[in-house]
Amino acid sequence: MSQPDGYSPSFKRPAEIMRMRRKRTRSDASVFSSPSGPGSTAGQSDSSPAGVRPFSPGPLFNTQSRPGGGIKRRNPFANIENTYSPSKKCLIYNEDGHAEAVDRCKRNKLTEKEGEEMDCNAALPLSARLTEAEKHEHQDVNSKKCLSFSEDDSLFEEEEEEVVSPLIKSPQAIAPASIAPPVCTVFPSDWSLKTRLLFTSPLTLSWAENPKAQEEATGLSQHLRAHFITLPHSLQDPRSSSELRCAFQQSLVYWQHPSLPWLSLFPRINAERSFTGKCTPWAQDRALQQSLMSEWSVSLSSLYSLLKTKLCPYFYLCSYQFSVLFRAAGVGGSGSSITALISPTTRGLRESMKAEGIEFSLPLVEDRRKSREQQKHPGEEQEQACSELKEAEERHGEKDEDNDDEDGSFSWLKEIGVQDKIKKPDSNTIQLQKEGQTVSLDHKPESVVCVQGTHTFTLINFLINCKSLVAAAGPQAGLPPTLLAPNAFRGATMHTLKARSVNVKSQIGGSYQDISSLEITGAILPSSLHTITNLLRPAQKGNFSSALYTHTPTAVMNTHTTEQQSSAGSSDLSACGIHPASIQQLTQPSTLGKTALSHISMINYSYTWRS
Fold first, then answer.
1. What is the pLDDT of residues 5-54, one digit of tens each?
2. Distance of alpha carbon 175 from alpha carbon 180, whole angstroms
């Protein structure tokens, strides 16, 4: 059988295939980078041997009409009878970087006149050339076929590719760029206490530190009189704005009891290191401890009275074991009743509250139980009814159950004759097994307790008379819990957060840019966080970011209560001494669950956040 000219059935080893592939890549690069003038075409075609198939197997190319004049190596594994298809297309890259798909047969049949037109078209401006590329791509926009080398480098595979014109964009591709993202002017309310805020901005933040004596005095006076100023949408020079600096000093104020200058009374949980080695004269003096607790009880009662009359929106009680958040009616979506959240709790504390007649709920446990019930299939309703009946029998027959555990429940052992070989568990072990789930909640976020309505007043009396509220030993022995509030109350001391500004250089991409940072430390209340961010918005022209450091035991304070109402904002809290914008945010139910905000960013006056 006679073989066509230029066809060699010789076998090529894989190493030679890879070497030929690299050589082909270099030759293609030289072809695409070569000029496309008429003179160059003729020069390159002279170096091409006659009778060589550039895309073998297939018809011979007219080397004189090829604009590049390069030689395409043949595929040694191709079958000459069934491989060639006139419908195959290849990509030709123009000088402007765009790819156009052309049939091989059409490209082979290009006349010299068409070649001259292509050369002349290369000299046209970019806009004129784009119109020609658009025509070619519009013709073959549905489905294009091209040759690509497979991953095993064995043969060329024919694969379908959807060629999308860069000039004709689909509506789906245009939509994300043309539709602007929604502008979010507020971030969700966060009821956790923060220990540190770190703001960064491309604009300077030095205006926030070293206030003048008059500015600091004006800020404190505005806080006491609950007087708030309105700032413009954007400030050209924050350093020269006295109103901004006075408002910033006003936002740093909070009230605390007790106040001991040589001790940091927040945080209190796991803070033994900050108390070690400090002077604590009340630790061994019983009369001094009673005096401190008496003064603390008066302050707590004063805070609850302010909360009840809506003159104080919320306050915190921080002990060495747990923290309590009291919120006025209408705050945090609580409806028309005062709410209190306690976290973390223990079984002993919950039993003591039950003994005092305080009704409470476990919101996270109830939510988990409801989710499990919703996941059950309809066929399990009968089993659920049986389990509820069994639980009711256990609640009403606890005494008889103990006797059954000792005698009746092990009667089946006598039937098989092994009652003497198996040791029966005692009543204490059985009781511990029943209470295992209750004890497993201790010191966990799921142990958060919610008290509502008139039971919050009973909770106040319980906290005043609870002996375990104060540590009996250790560095915090005899020291009453810390009370924190945004408003003044009886026995409280005014404190201010510490602010410090630093200018640093940060590497962004391949260059260094000046970044200004502002660090705020102390007991940062939710209203303070909201007020500070509202002041940074006009001062930094709507571009800043903040890292938030949360006091971990208070992160679960964002959980929703069981009786939240959507009309909670109807309560009148205008006399509580908080900025109206902060009141509007704090009256909304929190959507963070048992997590807290960890980062807030504002870009072009729009908030983004993560928890």
1. 555 556 667 777 888 888 887 776 665 555 444 444 444 444 444 444 44
2. 9
Copy the structure tokens of residue 398: 């606890």
Here the tokens at position 266 are 């927040």
Note the Cα 149 to chain centre separation in Å: 43
Q: Are the beta carbons of 98 and 133 closer than 8 angstroms?
A: yes
Q: Which two tokens stand for residue 46?
A: 């002279």
Would you state the pLDDT for residue 323?
A: 96
β 449-452/339-343 pair status? antiparallel
Alpha-carbon distance values, 90 to 36, 107, 119, 541 (Å): 19, 10, 20, 53
CB atoms within 10 A of CB 463: 18
Which stretches of 450-525 are DSSP H helices? Answer: 455-465
* Domain boundaries defined on the chain: 14-175, 182-251+497-559+594-611, 253-375+421-494
pLDDT band at 560 (very low <50, low <70, confident <90, very high): confident
Distance CA 92, CA 158 (A): 17
Q: Are 537 and 234 in contact (CB under 8 A)?
A: no
Tokens 């401190």 label which residue?
292
Residue 609 and residue 187 in contact, taking contact as beta carbons nearer than 8 Å: yes
Q: At 200, give phi and psi (nearest 5°).
A: -130, 145
Identify which of 331, 368, 327, 362 has the alpha carbon closest to the alpha carbon of residue 347.
362
Burial 78-117 (b: 16+ CB within 10 A, else e): beeeebeeeebbbebebeeebbbbeebeebbebeeeebee
- The pTM assigned to this predicted structure is 0.65
Q: Are 288 and 481 in contact (CB under 8 A)?
A: no
Q: What is the pLDDT of residue 133?
A: 45
pLDDT digits (tens, 9 = 90+) for 221-261: 999 999 999 999 889 999 999 999 999 999 999 999 999 99
pLDDT score for 428: 65
Cβ-contact 226, 487 below 8 angstroms: no
Helix runs in 253-378, H state only: 272-275, 286-308, 347-355, 363-375
**What pLDDT, on a 0 to 100 scale, did the predictor assign at position 376?**
65
Summarize pLDDT for 579-590 with one digit per residue, the tens.
999 999 999 998
Strand, helix or coil at 114?
helix
DSSP secondary structure letters along 74-102: P-TT--TTTS--TT-EEEEE-TTS-EEEE
Distance of CA 217 to the CA centre of its chain: 39
3-state SS assignment for residue 456:
helix
- For residues 153 and 21, the answer to whether their CB atoms sit within 8 Å is yes
Residues 6+ apart with CB under 8 A from 343: 322, 323, 445, 447, 448, 449, 553, 554, 556, 557
Tally Cβ neighbours within 10 Å of residue 240.
10
Q: How far apart are CA 253 and CA 496, in angstroms?
A: 4
Cis peptide before 238 (omega within 30 of 0): no
The shares of helix, strand and coil residues in the chain, as percent rounded to the nearest 5, are 40, 20, 40
Phi then psi dihedrals of residue 542, to 5 deg: 75, 25
